[in-house]
Hints:
Layout: H1 3-14, E1 20-25, E2 27-40, E3 47-60, H2 61-70, E4 74-81, H3 85-96, E5 100-107, E6 114-121, E7 124-131, H4 139-155, E8 159-163, H5 172-184, E9 189-192, E10 206-207, H6 211-217, H7 226-240, E11 244-248, E12 254-260, E13 263-269, H8 282-297, H9 300-314, H10 325-333
Helix pairs in contact: 1-9, 1-10, 2-8, 4-5, 8-9, 9-10
Amino acid sequence: MDKLIKQELIKIVDNFKNKTIGIIGDVILDKYIFGKVRRISPEAPVPIVEINSEKISFGGSSNVASNISDLGGKAVILSVLGNDSAASEISSMMREKKGIDTSYIIFDESQKTIEKTRIIAEHQQVVRIDRETKFNYDNKIKQKMKDNIKNLIKKGIDALVLSDYGKGVLSREIIEYSIESSLKAKIPIFVDPKIEHFMSYKKITSMTPNIMEAFSGMRRPEKREQFEIEKLGIEIVKKLKLKSLIITQSENGMTVFENLNQKIKTTHIPTKAKEVFDVTGAGDTVISVLSLGYAASKNILHSAMVANYAAGLVVAKIGTASATPQELKEVINE
């Protein structure tokens, strides 16, 4: 990579610390149980996992907030949680972390906070157990959420992330209200999308679907050839009137589509991952770094390059993880 570009990328990382990112989306409590498998159960053909350790972690949009905090930025999170022990655990974890503002979270007794428990043996996920009930707004909570969005935008943020896990906090109405409010205030908008809301993400700064989400969102059969991905990406940018689009391609890196005065420029960035242990939360890292990077530089391609380095770092770690500014600068300089 060109030395001047490396310097630009490091400058972007250095400027993360001055930026505040608003995040709207589904907060999830992630639990991990680590152990070893020595034998198969005599009761059924399944492994017996002998537990060594357990940990709880940030999931969903709280992992985006955690990534932003670890990168030196400030995260303001808007969501709805139940009034239960899982909500207490995850909100307490967020409050304890420097750089996460939880004052816009709404607690609603009629909801249940989502928990995902992963059992991991020898770096391999054996099973995942989900406790979730899809969230549904009543009129009172919906209005409170809209008021919080309006107040956050009035307060001033450098970018807004819609972290859509399809669990209900980002309803179509809330998505459209968030985008409309942000566009009026000239706040850049970044979306980690879900298929069912794909056509609602119009006129935003950038969206980061993976290959499956990109093809499914456009109601097309999935294809893996690079020219098919590029053809589809150009179509998505035009259809949704996006400023940019990034299609993430796992071990094949990512492709960036920039809408430059109605001409769409396509750039493929190869992966920077050296080893892959766990892809959990890699999409959260990409959207976190992309939004911070763009807030710091207004350059989507350079921000995507930094996000690609960050994704390469986190997939080498077990569980939802994040990169630090120091780690990023070291890997960029290699």
